[in-house]
TrEMBL record:
NCBIfam families: PRK08241.1 (NF006089), sigma70-ECF (TIGR02937), SigX5 (TIGR02960). SUPFAM superfamilies: NTF2-like, Sigma2 domain of RNA polymerase sigma factors, Sigma3 and sigma4 domains of RNA polymerase sigma factors. Residues 142-193 form the RNA polymerase sigma factor 70 region 4 type domain. The keyword Transcription applies. This is Sigma-70 family RNA polymerase sigma factor. Residues 20-87 form the RNA polymerase sigma-70 region domain. Keywords: Sigma factor, Transcription, Transcription regulation.
Amino acid sequence: MLADLLQRARDGDRDAFTALVEPHRGELQVHCYRMLGSIQDAEDALQETLLSAWLGVEGFEGRSSVRTWLYRIATNRCLNLLRSSGRRPVTAAPLPVATPEPTRLGEVLWLQPYPDVLLEGLSDQAPGPEARYESREAISLAFVTAVQLLPPNQRAALLLRDVLGYRARETAELLGLTEDTVTNALKRGRATMAAARTSDQPPPAPGSAEERELLDRFVAAFTEHDIDALIALMTDEAWVRMPPLPLEYHGTTAVHRFFSAVYTHWRESDHLVPIRANGQPAWGAYAPNPATGILHITGVYVLDLAGDRISALTRFETTVAPYFGLPRTLE
């Protein structure tokens, strides 16, 4: 069946090509997202990958699987984008209040969350024998954030080896590098990832009683604008980030200073709509218009959890709201 589809695709049958690549579309987009940290860029890279595959399918000799062939194209499209000077500009409206000096330990400014709905029904293709990360951790916002700190080759090598589980020789072939180069890039990438790790405590299971209890306490503290209660829910090494703004705060002391400084602006957001992003709890935050009472979206918040505490709180711009089906206003 696969051989027949491939031959028909080589002969110019677009429907056969679609049937050939469609089972891999979802996982390819996730791979591009991990590489680029942006759902917008991941969508663009995926479309370029599929177009390139269609234009090159006639020359595909089948010496690797279709999946591996597609991953080679997708990875190289992402590497080209990372190395180009034409990445999306980092622009955001500044907060209307003065903020304390950020921690500045390596901000990741071009970062977006990934809707859980896009993770549903992905291929059940198991990772290879070299994989070090389980799928849940490898899509987490903490993992994706840390990956963005890596140079392009280190990033690609780590994802192909430690997430997808390709062997060193296969990874070298996919990237057009020597095994020694891949091994060295991987060693440096793993060291950076280990240093960026926020906690060794696993998060509670999604939908579990432990997760619900923690989230209820967070929502109460957030909507009541209780800074002390919010800080009490965080680990000592917790992060607050606000990409694409260069505002990053590490540790409860710095986080407390930040929320104290933005209290007047923050207290306007008092309505949270639950969603999920990156396999994690998230919310669309809304604030009422003083004149009409209509609720307007003010941002999207994603929590990283560690045990019974919050290890990171990341706020995103309202531009990501449509990916989660969040309306601009609520009445």
